[in-house]
Amino acid sequence: MRSRRLAVGFALAVALAAGAGVWWMEGGKYLFQPRKWGVVEQDGLYRSGQIHRRIVEDVLREHHIDLIVDLASDDPPGDPDEAAERAAARRLGIRRIELSLRGDGGGGPDAYSQALASVIRARRSGERVLVHCNAGRERTGALVAMYRMLEDHWDGARAWDEYLRYRKRPPERPVLQRHVEQALPSVADALREQGLLTSAPAPLPVFGPAPAAVASGG
């Protein structure tokens, strides 16, 4: 009887541990750490998904954020985490820019131009910036890729590799590639008109896998 009770207890403990592991991996961890958090520049440019309301004020305070660029305003509508972020930003005196890009990273070059211009101005003024969307992959990935290619003069393959680090697997379809390819010339022109881009690469980088990677993939 005692051995049976031990076996049942062990099985229950294993089941609870497995359940806790699933809960953690399916999103429970985001009650304790920011979703898809990443450091773009060590001295104050960060990226993430929407931060949970339980920790958002602490994260903003810890990293001394001056500007939030929200690429997924009201997505989903009435999101309590976004509402908590707005309230925390008001309390901490943090500026917010709200844009509504589509979940696949589309939505037009004007929004990306506005977002990128705001990030560049803030960074050149020494301000600390957080860029985020909902999941922290597509919209944020597109903006960071454009920043890398236009401001940091990265090539497109290097920017692509960074984008992939925030995904579980490479995308099955080149949707974000097309959005970035279509938006990048207009974004570069807009930044030039605002005096924020004096030495754009010519030709503009091609955002995507390096040619050798494409060939090896069949």
Can you walk me through this structure?
There is one protein chain. This protein has 218 residues and is an alpha/beta fold. The chain has one domain: Protein tyrosine phosphatase superfamily (Protein-Tyrosine Phosphatase, Chain A, Alpha-Beta Complex). It contains 8 helices and 5 strands. The chain has a 5-stranded mixed β-sheet, sandwiched between helices. Helix 3 links the parallel strand 3 (67-70) and strand 4. The N and C termini lie far apart (60 Å).
Blueprint of the fold:
Layout: H1 2-25, E1 38-41, E2 45-48, H2 56-62, E3 67-70, H3 80-92, E4 95-98, H4 109-124, E5 129-132, H5 138-150, H6 156-164, H7 175-193, H8 211-216
Helix pairs in contact: 2-3, 4-7, 5-6, 5-7
Record keyword descriptors for this entry.
218 residues, alpha/beta, Protein-Tyrosine Phosphatase, Chain A, five-stranded mixed sheet, 8 helices, 5 strands, 49% helix, 9% strand, disordered C terminus
Low-confidence runs: 13-20, 22-26, 214-218
How much is the radius of gyration in Å? 20 Å
Kindly report the average pLDDT value: 88
Mind telling me which CATH architecture this is?
A: Alpha-Beta Complex
> Structural class of the helices, strands and pairings?
alpha/beta
Largest sheet: 5 strands, mixed
Q: Please estimate the helix content.
A: 40-55%
Can you identify the CATH class?
Alpha Beta
Using the alpha-carbon principal axes, give the shape.
globular
Please provide the count of β strands.
5
Strand content: 5-15%
- H/E element order: HEEHEHEHEHHHH
> In whole angstroms, how far apart are the ends?
60 Å
The total domain count is 1
